[in-house]
Specification:
CATH class of the largest domain: Mainly Beta
Oligomer: single chain
Helix content: 10-25%
Radius of gyration: 28 Å
Shape: rod-shaped
CATH topology of the largest domain: Immunoglobulin-like
Order of helices and strands: EEEEEEEEH
Largest sheet: 5 strands, mixed
CATH architecture of the largest domain: Sandwich
Strand content: over 45%
Number of strands: 8
Number of domains: 2
CATH superfamily of the largest domain: Immunoglobulins
Number of helices: 1
Distance between the termini: 127 Å
Amino acid sequence: MPNTIPTSPIIKLPNVYVELAALFATEISPIDTVNVTAYVTNKSSTNGQAKIRLLINGTEEESKGISVDSGSTTPVTFTVQKSQPGTYYVTVNNMSAGSFTVSDNSMILYISIACLLLAFVLGLIMICRRVTI
């Protein structure tokens, strides 16, 4: 009798990965938010699960566990708010989503206050001239 090697059935593992990640704003103010969406695909014939990690400047900000049916793609959206002015680089499971910038609106505030003060001073000057005439 020839030697036969017993075989096990082939087990197909899920192949779940982030296929695409995108930002939906590139410049925001400190009070705004930016949505980051990752499209998670499962290319196998078996349903699968994955932990989707959102990293900002290399630091994990949030994660979500998801299930993805075989042969399908599932969107996963994160909402991010940053109050410090600067540029933030975003990745989702090592897939770059791009970057966004939080603008520094303090200059606009200072200019607005200066304009109001100037208008007030000019108003006082006009009133003083009318009183002295």
